[in-house]
Structure formats: C-alpha cells, structure tokens
Design a protein that fits this description.
20 helices; 52% helix; alpha/beta; 6-stranded parallel β-sheet; single chain; 519 residues
C-alpha cells in the first residue's frame, strides 16, 4: 500500500497550480530585454511582430519610438498603428499611447515600446507598464521592450556602475510576470560602433554618451546584469513547471545550493563554504533550518549560535528559510527536491560510532536519500571563528532543581483524589482512573515531562491504595484489579509523555519565530 506522504509528494504544487490558474484568461507578455539603448530591442520586436502577422495573427502597434532610425521606421510599413492621443501639459502637446482605442480595437497582439516610460499627468495610469497590465488583463498579448537599467531592484547597482541614476523604473514583478524574455545581446564594440555611425543618437549626443555611459566596461557589466536577470526568471519558470506537473527533481538545468544550518559548532564554516560554492557556480543559494521539537531543549549558547548562523547567512546574501519537521534528513531532501536544488552542504558527523548506531546519522541519511543531488560534507575548519563563539565560552547552563512544580503537581493529584472519593459512590473504578489521569495531563501541560511522570507515580499509588481491592493497602489480589492498575499506569505514562512533547513542540515553534525575527 503506497505511503500517504509519498502520494502527497507526487502531487502538483498547489502554489504552482494557483499561479497557473491566475494566468488563465490573461494575455501573454513577451519582453525584449536589452543591456543598453541601441542594442536593437525595438527592431527585434517589430521583426517578431511581422512573423506573427505572416502567421495570420491580428497585430497592431500601440506605440513605437523610432528615434529617427531609418531601419526601424521602415519596419513600421504594413502595420496598423493605433493613433496616439494628445495630452496638453504646461503649454506643450504630448503624444501618449491610447489605451482606450487599443481595448476597443481588441487585437490579438499589440506592440508597446519603452515599457518604463512615464505617462503625461492626467493619464489613466502614471506609468506605461500599468497600461500594459490592463491590456494583458483583457486577454490581449503584448510585446514590449525594456533596458536592464530600468529594473527597480538593479537601480542602485546600475548607478554604481555607470554613475548615472535612472529615474524611470519598473518593479521586478513585471519581469516575473513575463511569459517569455528575449535578451537582445550586442557586444560592447558593436554597440559603440553603432554609436559612432549615428544609429543610436545624434553625433554630438553620441560622443558624450561614449565618453560617459557607453564605455566598454560599463556595457560589459550591464550585459552581464541582463543575462543574469533573465537566467533567474528562466530558472523560476523551470521550477514552476516542475512543481505544477509534479516532476521529481532535480533537473540540473541550473545550479542551486542549499546549506543546512543548525546550532552545532562549525555552522559558520559551512555557510561560508556554501557562499564560495555558489559564487563559483554563479548560482543562487539558500540557508535552511529544520525546526524540530528538540529546539526547545537547547541551551542559551546553542540558541545564540543558531541565531548568529542564520544572521550570517542572510548577511552573505542567502535566502534564509525555516521549515517544521520531525525527520531532519527526509525533510531536507524533500525541500531540496521540491525546489530543484542541485547541491546540499552539510557538516560531517560529530557523534561517536555507538551513538550513530543507536540514534542514526543525519549526514549518512542525507547521502543515502539525496538521489541525484550532490552532498558536500564539510569538516569544522573554522573552530575559533564561529559567529557565536567569538566571545568567551560560557559555562554549561545549569538548571537548578525546583521543588514547586512537584508541590503543585501533588496538589493536582490530591484534588483529583478528593473528586474521585466523591465520585466513588456513583461510578465504576475505571471511571475514577480517568479523573486521576486528568491530574497527570494537567501536570504535563503545566510543567513538562518530569513532574508529569511524578504525577503518574503518585496517582498510581493513590489509585491502588484507595480504590483497588483490598483497599487501603498496596496489595492487589484480584486479577481484574491488576489489569486495571497496569492499564492506568501505561496510559498515564504514554499520555504524560505525549502531552509534554506537544508542550515542548509549541515552545519550539514560538522560539523559532523569535529567532527568525531576530535575524
């Protein structure tokens, strides 16, 4: 009989299916992305539109800026161009795309140039990308152009490279919503040649641009940004396809690194190794912590080390993720497979051979279950540089024995015993056992495992002394009473253990939330 967990893993991801459902009824967005002005985005968009016209698709031009380029102007011949609307602003007449005319015309495909354009005041939307989103919502496909310097998240990076701050930007969600991205690539030398030939700007403007913005170094860096951002979007599309079709990973079309973070010493070394590995592979990386009930039993030093490791991973550029779990190895492999990670970084075993034989080894379990995922086992090579170990090591946490939980537990049992003595006149002895069991559960919820076990012992003795024949002795003669006593003791121990474990897991969940907030 197949395992229910296996069946769940083989089902499509609900999030991926939801994203696919949200796209139904919308038009498709194709983005022509360039590293800089003049690489030929508008030209390629018009050529692609002509190919669709030849296929019998109803294509119109919403707005195209030719910038006086003859080759681009010639490509407009044969297209139906939607007339622009006139907007008066401060004594000037501005031409803007007429979105109402496009929606009334309802073509199958509309070409919209310069996605980052800011509309004239008084327009329906302040930005052209918002016009495009409205067109897409009506089920009309859109081809559009964009330069990488106009992407909001890269604005600071571009300003640092070129020393020019771009004011018109679009949110990254536009790229994330694109169904297709085509990078229009041109080498820096070819683009600079086009500038000299006057195919991008007028001669006097072109010379200033070459001296400032269009240097070979700047263009190379912008070109790499465009290729990287496109690769990131393609990687997201691949992952979404795998999840929506329940395809087991990993597909090594792109590298992804996952580093396992816990409270053990040496975590900082693993995190730094994962960062170096991700840099070598030019891959995204994630720091993963599996939150188990054991977290509640960690010492303050271990909690500090875990929080510091998560903070270090975030500072080094990782995406930090925390998931609940019970079997750490299976949970890590399940997460890595679902998210198409190709590399897992884990620390070497630290337990003795005897403890590994009894309790198992996380490292070996990961290697056995990883399948096609590469597992990197890292030794503790940075013993003195862990983020949480740079200060003087504190003495082991000593928790003094406290009497009051056991005193309160005795009060719980005494109260249950008094209630049972009253109910003894009306109910069977097995029902009285339930009343005493309630005291055990209350102790487990309030104080944890050891006071609950103490309550089990005291309740069992009281149950035997006061209610099992012969009463007021610890002797049990009736076989039925022996069974009742044994049943009570077993149920009390199991119930107290489960209740204490649940209490511990709840505390671990709250602690995990506080660790995430601190990071």
């Amino acid at each position: 009989m197949p395992d229910d967990r296996t069946n769940l893993e083989n089902r499509p991801s609900p999030d991926a299916l939801l994203e696919h459902a949200e796209r139904e009824g919308r038009g498709r967005l194709r983005l022509f992305l360039g590293a800089a002005p003049g690489v030929g985005k508008t030209y390629e968009m018009l050529m692609a539109g002509r190919a669709r016209l030849a296929d019998g698709i109803d294509v119109v031009v919403g707005v195209v800026e030719t910038h006086g380029r003859k080759e681009t102007q010639a490509l407009l011949d044969g297209y139906e161009v939607i007339p622009r609307r006139q907007v008066e602003y401060r004594g000037r007449t501005l031409d803007e795309m007429d979105i109402d005319a496009i929606l009334k015309r309802r073509p199958q495909l509309v070409l919209v140039d310069e996605l980052a354009h800011t509309n004239a005041p008084g327009s329906r939307h302040p930005k052209r990308y918002l016009d495009v989103q409205e067109i897409l919502a009506q089920g009309i496909d859109v081809y559009t152009t964009l330069n990488i310097q106009h992407v909001e998240s890269l604005n600071d990076v571009v300003a640092q490279i070129t020393r020019v701050r771009v004011r018109e930007t679009v949110p990254d969600s536009i790229i994330d919503e694109a169904d297709d991205i085509e990078v229009i690539d041109l080498t820096p030398d070819d683009l600079i040649k086009r500038l000299h030939e006057g195919k991008v700007y007028f001669p006097n403007t072109a010379q200033r641009a070459i001296e400032n913005y269009f240097s070979p170094g700047n263009l190379t860096a912008l070109r790499e940004l465009a290729l990287r951002r496109t690769a990131q979007r393609v990687d997201e599309q691949l992952l979404n396809h795998m999840q929506s079709h329940a395809i087991p990973g990993p597909w090594a079309a792109g590298e992804r690194v996952l580093v396992c973070v816990d409270q053990r010493p040496g975590g900082a070394a693993r995190i730094r190794y994962a960062r170096r590995l991700a840099d070598r592979l030019r891959a995204p990386w994630t720091a993963l912590h599996v939150d188990t009930p054991r977290l509640a039993g960690m010492s303050e030093e271990e909690k500090d080390r875990l929080a510091a490791n998560l903070r270090l991973a975030e500072q080094l550029g990782a995406e930090v993720s925390t998931i609940p779990g019970q079997n750490i190895a299976q949970d890590i492999v399940r997460h890595a497979t679902a998210n198409n990670f190709t590399h897992i970084v884990i620390g070497r075993p630290t337990r003795s051979r005897w403890r590994e034989l009894i309790e198992g080894s996380l490292t070996y379990d990961l290697i056995r279950n990883a399948g096609d995922i590469s597992v990197h086992v890292i030794s503790r090579t940075e013993r003195d540089t862990d983020a949480a170990s740079t200060r003087v090591k504190a003495a082991a946490e000593q928790r003094p024995f406290q009497v009051w939980p056991y005193f309160v537990t005795t009060v719980f049992v005494t109260g249950a015993l008094a209630a049972s003595s009253v109910l003894d006149q009306f109910f069977d002895v097995r029902n009285l056992a339930s009343v005493l069991l309630l005291a055990v559960l209350t102790s487990a919820v309030t104080f944890g495992l050891w006071p609950a076990l103490y309550a089990c012992f005291v309740s069992a003795l009281a149950f035997n002394f006061f209610f099992l024949e012969p009463r007021y002795t610890l002797t049990i003669r009736d076989p039925e009473s022996i069974v009742a006593f044994a049943a009570f003791l077993v149920v009390a121990v199991i119930a107290s253990n489960l209740t204490a474990t649940t209490r511990k897991a709840a505390k671990a969940t709250m602690l995990s939330g506080s660790l995430i907030v601190s990071v």
